[in-house]
Amino acid sequence: MSSPVVKLNSGYEMPLVGFGLWKVNNDTCADQVYNAIKAGYRLFDGACDYGNEVEVGQGVARAIKDGLVTREDLFLVSKLWNSFHDGDKVEPIARKQLADLGIDYFDLYIVHFPVALEYVDPSVRYPPSWTNAQGKIQHSKATIQETWTAMESLVDKKLARSIGVSNFSAQLLMDLLRYARIRPATLQIEHHPYLTQKTLVDYAQQEGLTVTAYSSFGPLSFIELQVEKAQDTPRLFDHDVITSLATKYNRTPAQVLLRWATQRNIAVIPKSNDPTRLAQNLQVTDFDLEAGEIDSISALNQHLRFNDPLNYDIRNDTERERPLIAMFDTSDAAERAIAASPLTITLPTPTPPAFSPNPFASSTSPTSSPTLSPLSSSSTPQTITCTLSPSRHNYERSTRRNPFYNMFHIDKTSAIYADMRSEETGTPLAELADVLMRNPAGLTDSKSGEKLT
Ligand SMILES: NC(=O)c1ccc[n+]([C@@H]2O[C@H](COP(=O)([O-])OP(=O)(O)OC[C@H]3O[C@@H](n4cnc5c(N)ncnc54)[C@H](OP(=O)(O)O)[C@@H]3O)[C@@H](O)[C@H]2O)c1
Prior knowledge:
Its EC number is 1.1.1.307. This protein is an alpha/beta fold.
């Protein structure tokens, strides 16, 4: 099964269905890309910010080497991150991303957000996420026009065949279209039945831009990121309107949601770690919903946006508590610890610390990265009680570069580790995990920043 294509205003053809690379873990990424190519995917939607372009390139290179595809068969998309909006920074970073991917042109290169941040040199932190070298949110003076002019020169230099934008409003597009020498080929936006953005979609399509939907399944992708709104919103997969259509057409709810978009010429880029779902997500152009059914799905609109940068605390004045994240070396270890959760950690005072928020730790990716949610904690607790929940989010990469999480690498030999036990069974965590964590240091309270020792 392969995807039909849509012709872009740049003259190139783009598959209508692709594979999204956000939150694809580094340790599995190359294989997932390879397997997705095997399953028929040709479009891969990546970004500097996803922190996995080297591994994407490895998967692509292997598929080409094994004769599954040629470079020309593929449609590789990447994005310009916010820290590289200054006109003179666009080409160098595009060249670095191409080198990471092991290719010499992007099929499509997109401005990720209309947000210009101060430059962070890749030798300082890469990907840089939202803060500057000093860990502060600092905007750059680059205008969208300056950035777009530099994007256009990538096309002139044949580094990108098509260029596009993401997360732009209609008003920002109107502004951009006044001066664009090369019009954006695509607009990539959050688009699902809870956020239909009809006027924006209509406007972009009328202006000849192809719209690509991201997060087609609505809240699902944001639940594991602990976005509150997503946790409180009913899953689209369980909604009567979607499930009844899935039954009628003998498809999965996911396929109905994706068809709702593709039938209106909106491209989709679902991400799945699961081979069965991966294959299903590609089969979303071979059945048709009735016009009234499309309308009934669109009527679920609640203007509910999950991917709002302001949800990520991109201000310096926030008091918001950061999620705690524990990393396990193997999924088995994580599953055992999750099964024993909630866990109580007794803090042995005044012994040396055994945990640390270790956002810049260098180590290999875990096969599983549970989220630790504190049930009770204070700045100087004697015990901390935590629930552990599984997550496939690429936490290790994001915590290395993102100030909005506190990650704990648990040292198996530490006193705290030895005292961490299941509340229900009393089993010490030391007996639940095989090889626990690598980077011993001090546990710091997520709110106050004080050492908890
Ligand atoms: N431009 C931007 O600012 C922006 C922002 C967000 C995303 N994106 C792009 O859009 C892509 C897709 O968006 P997304 O990652 O937010 O989420 P998504 O594709 O809407 O949803 C991913 C979630 O849905 C699950 N899933 C996938 N297929 C499924 C199926 N057939 N049945 C049931 N569950 C299924 C996945 O779990 P499993 O893996 O377990 O299947 C995962 O939890 C990203 O990867 C990225 O490339 C762009």
